[in-house]
Design goal:
CATH topology of the domain at 87-221 and 236-390 in chain A: TIM Barrel
Number of helices of chain A: 15
Helix content of chain A: 25-40%
Distance between the termini of chain B: 37 Å
CATH class of the domain at 87-221 and 236-390 in chain A: Alpha Beta
Oligomer: heterodimer
Largest interface: A-B, 49 and 61 residues
Structural class of chain B: alpha/beta
Strand content of chain B: 15-25%
Order of helices and strands of chain B: HHEEEEEHEEEHHEHEHEHEHHHEEE
Strand content of chain A: 15-25%
Largest sheet of chain B: 8 strands, mixed
CATH superfamily of the domain at 87-221 and 236-390 in chain A: Metal-dependent hydrolases
Distance between the termini of chain A: 88 Å
Strand order of the largest sheet of chain B: 5-6-7-8-9-10-11-12
Number of strands of chain B: 15
Shape of chain B: globular
CATH architecture of the domain at 87-221 and 236-390 in chain A: Alpha-Beta Barrel
């Protein structure tokens, strides 16, 4: 009897396999608990004195009353602010070159030029950015594919969150090009792709025709010979499209994926290029995957963008400056409130140059200063960029089931004196300010300045009622006295 | 108690002010248009007078372009326009700002141009200073450019929007420059010995800049007391010795600062301010010994400021500037002010960065109001909110030391110079 044997064998095998799989899994249960801080989950209301339970790099519970497992590693956040790690949706640093000199290179990827030991990633971690979309610059009409990384690991494979990221395009005329030539080139590339695909299709039709005739001839021949026609067990016919794509030239494969809407696209535009970009994306099948990387003047076509429903990545220059061509008057327009009012989802980004444009939290503070509400401002550096990157269910908020990317801040995220104290990425404590030797060197910390900077006033930026004690801002004589007093106190200690 | 004192003080000062103001002074401080009819009363939840504690729920009454009363329990005069705000501070003072200059603040034809006046370069178009006003700046120090070793006379002006430049002092003092900018574009004359254009000039090295300054000061020192033979264009340099005309020296790094102080010592210059001063904390002893005042630039308090245009980092070799430079200098008792250095990033941002890196909010605010006014010797008119002072005020929608705070109304000489649309 075969049956009983099988019946016995199967359960044993199953049990064995479960044991084999689950035993190491039990040993690997790593619990981390972030305890005692004011949690700003971004996606929901703030939680005073909350706890986050992290298991194997994922958040499994958030709230006031969360039980701490006996084996949990505890990160104390008492008196601190806990916020999801910031997400930078458009980061053009961390590699040796932003763009190739040849205008069309859809087949390349930043993975090949990513420099894991670059200072840029170290800075990103220090500034609390835990998910970064590293992508090409705006100097090519079709640049290549970006990748989404976590700013530690030092090796591309270890850093990768999404290895094959969005394709970068630019509708802004590159150097020496005009709008006409830029658009003409883009049309040419996509027309050529269409021709190529048609040729490929024709070739397949010819092949199929030839095969058909050949079969029929064989059949006729067989009938003529009086033989019984051979019954072949025909393989299921590969769909025509798939067969074509198998044959697509590797250099063109990304563009084929693009026109089929399979990969996300980040397209750089200024106000002038927005209508063309939207039409072009609709025509070539990537409209649904399009994110506009807008220049500072794109607020002028905010209606068009809002109507299209596509999200935008704002230029680091959050206040658009221009001169009135007639009167010569300087005009400044805050960009973020325009998009916020029209309900456009936007992500903020950074650049190296000016102080306030260098950090995502100061960028968010700038949007609040110019009229965006605090909630939207915080979302524009966490949840919105995460959603734009297609990682809305993994990062950008503190919720059950999300990756445990958590920052512990010394105060309110938008307050002037707030520093990133600790960074947890996927349950691992990867940065501690007190051990940041390079930061100490950069800001030249003496004992005294360290002391000054370790006691920030932890007032929330939007609630100015709680003004800290105000020392008479007096002549330097008084400051000197204060200093003497301070020193005395130090001496007493 | 404070309010009572203030009231008494207010009445006393207003009487004194009426009696003692000289005709010349009142002519200078006269507001551009006719504010006589306007009385403004401003109620602030927090009133930063910069003369003492922050007053809760303070009131400031402005009349005829001047502050008429300050205090907590002041009756608002009938018929006065009333404004409300969260925080009220004096108008900010930018101790080095080239906004409003047409962009050619240098006379390249010579490396020594003592009679060049920056005020002549200031454009009086009413909206020239709008960007400054929006960020709460009401007074700027406008120096000549950095191309000449002796650049010329610096001006102090207000940012009010009038058809006439609102000048506080057209010739505050003389500006020297010892940085590399003095040599950009210069070339030496070789071969035929005939220069092609006036860029064939000195200096061509950093010691050359110091040499030029020594030559100029030596020449001027020899003219002291010889009124009849002083060439008119050299008069301001002679005034440095005769009348203790203030000297502003642009020096960025430690070497240039030491050069500046060495020259100051040699010629016994009395009133020196060094601006730039990226590494001021490394020569604090000399700064103290010579009573040097310091004006910090954006890159003096932010070592990663992108002034090099190359990835954003300045190359300082092993040393980085201290980011808490302001706090250190104030601790050491050095008179110090912040500046936007041409409005690249606004002055309020500088104040906030200084606050982030160690200075308390009040020390940082002091460095752009009262401290700056004292450093520029205009504290008789601006820098504090006190009776009799110019009514230059900024109404903020929150704590001015926060990046999230914006100026809502800016008042210059008792008139609303800018107000946001809401």
């Amino acid at each position: 009897m075969n049956l009983p044997k099988k019946l016995i064998f199967v359960p044993i095998f199953t049990i064995a396999s479960i044991a084999a799989v689950s035993r190491p899994a039990i040993a690997m249960q790593e619990h981390v608990v972030v305890k005692g801080g004011r949690i700003i989950p971004v996606s929901g209301p703030e939680i005073e004195n909350g706890t986050i339970l992290i298991e194997n790099g994922k958040i499994v519970a958030v709230g006031r009353t969360v039980d701490t497992p006996y084996d949990a590693k505890i990160i104390d956040a008492t008196g601190k602010v806990v916020i999801p790690g910031y997400v930078d949706a458009h980061f053009t640093r961390g590699y040796d070159r932003a763009n190739e000199s040849y205008p069309f290179t859809p087949y390349i990827s930043v993975a090949d030029s990513l420099d894991g030991v670059s200072q840029d990633f170290e800075d990103a971690l220090r500034d609390g950015v835990t998910t970064i979309n590293v992508i090409h610059g705006n100097a090519q009409p079709i640049a290549g594919r970006g990748m989404i990384v976590r700013p530690f690991g030092r090796i591309v494979e270890d850093m990768a969150v999404v290895y094959d990221g969005a394709l970068k395009m630019s509708f802004i005329p590159r150097q020496f090009a005009s709008h006409v030539s830029q658009f003409a080139e883009l049309r040419r590339v996509f027309d050529e792709l269409k021709d190529y695909m048609e040729r490929l299709s024709d070739r397949h039709e010819d092949d199929q025709e030839r095969e058909k005739t050949k079969k029929e001839e064989e059949k006729k021949q067989a009938e003529k010979d009086g033989k019984k026609p051979e019954v072949k067990n025909d393989k299921p016919v590969t769909p025509k499209d798939a067969r074509e794509e198998e044959d697509v030239d590797r250099r063109r494969r990304t563009l084929v994926d693009l026109t089929k809407g399979r990969i996300p696209v980040f397209a750089a535009v200024n106000a002038a290029e927005v209508p063309f970009a939207l039409d072009f994306a609709r025509k070539h099948g990537f409209f649904e995957r399009l994110t506009l990387v807008v220049g500072a003047d794109a607020w002028k076509v905010a209606d068009l963008i809002a109507a299209s429903g596509r999200p935008v990545v704002l230029d680091p220059e959050l206040i658009h400056k221009e001169k009135d061509p007639v009167t010569g008057k300087d005009i400044e327009t805050p960009v973020a409130p325009v998009f916020a009012k029209k309900g456009v989802r936007f992500a903020l980004t950074t650049t190296r140059s000016e102080y306030t444009q260098r950090y995502l939290n100061t960028q968010a503070a700038t949007t609040v200063r110019t009229g965006v509400d605090r909630e939207t401002a915080l979302k524009s550096i966490t949840q919105f960029p995460a959603e734009i990157l297609g990682l809305g269910d993994r990062v950008g908020s503190i919720e059950k089931g999300r990756d445990a990317n958590v920052l512990i801040l010394s105060g309110d995220p938008l307050a002037t004196t707030t520093f990133v104290e600790k960074v947890v990425v996927e349950g691992k404590l990867v940065y501690e300010r007190e051990n940041d030797e390079r930061l100490k060197r950069i800001i030249n910390v003496t004992e005294k300045s360290a002391k000054r900077m370790s006691t920030p006033d932890s007032k929330p930026a939007s609630a100015p009622e709680s003004k800290p004690e105000s020392k008479p801002a007096d002549e330097h004589k008084d400051d000197k006295e204060n200093k003497d007093n301070k020193e005395k106190k130090d001496g007493d200690k | 108690m404070i309010s009572i004192i203030n009231l008494i003080l207010a009445s006393f000062l207003s009487v004194q002010d009426g009696a003692a103001s000289t005709p010349a002074k009142s002519a200078q401080s006269k507001p551009a248009a006719n504010p006589a009819a306007t009385t403004i009363a401003i109620r602030a939840k927090r009133l930063h007078t910069m003369t003492g504690d922050v007053l809760a729920d303070g009131v400031v009454v402005v009349r005829d372009g001047k502050i008429a009363a300050v205090g907590a329990n002041i009756d608002i005069p009938a018929g006065a326009t009333t404004l409300d705000c969260e925080d009220l501070t004096p108008g900010l003072i930018d101790a080095n700002c080239s906004v409003g200059q047409t962009g050619m603040a240098n006379e390249d034809s010579s490396e020594i141009t003592p009679s060049f006046r920056a005020v002549d370069d200031l454009d009086a178009a009413p909206d020239k200073f709008l960007t400054l006003l929006k960020s709460g700046v009401t007074t700027i120090f406008a120096p000549p450019g950095n191309r000449n070793v002796v650049g010329g006379l610096a001006a102090i002006v207000k940012t009010s929007r009038s058809d006439k430049v609102n000048i506080i002092n057209p010739a505050w003092g003389i500006k020297f420059c010892l940085t590399q900018e003095t040599m950009y574009g210069n070339y030496s004359v070789r071969g035929s010995g005939v220069p092609r254009d006036f860029h064939a000039r000195r200096p061509q090295s950093r010691p050359g800049a110091v040499m030029e300054l020594r030559i100029a000061l030596n020449t001027a020192a020899n003219w002291v007391g010889k009124l009849g033979i002083i060439p008119p264009n050299m008069k301001p340099l002679v005034d440095v010795f005769e009348a203790n005309l203030p000297v502003r020296i642009h020096a960025l790094n430690l070497g240039e600062m030491r050069n500046a102080m060495r020259v100051a010592k040699e010629f016994d210059l009395k009133d020196i301010t060094i601006d730039g001063a990226i590494e001021a904390h490394r020569c604090l002893a000399d700064i103290k010994a010579l009573n040097v005042k310091i004006v910090l630039h954006p890159h003096s308090i932010d070592p990663m400021a992108g002034v090099d245009g190359n990835g954003g980092r300045l190359d300082y070799g092993d040393e980085h500037p201290a980011q808490d430079e302001l706090a250190r200098l104030v601790d050491a008792g050095v008179p110090v002010a912040l500046s936007s250095y041409g409005g690249r990033e606004n002055l309020a941002t500088q104040m906030r960065i200084a606050h982030r890196y160690g200075a308390t909010a009040d020390v940082a605010l002091n460095a752009v109001t009262r401290g700056a006014a004292e450093l520029l010797k205009i504290n008789d008119r601006v820098g504090t909110i006190a009776t009799g002072k110019d009514a230059d005020l900024v109404l903020w929608n929150g704590d001015p030391s926060e990046f999230t705070t914006a100026a809502k109304v800016v008042i210059v000489d008792g008139r609303v110079a800018w107000r946001d649309k809401e």
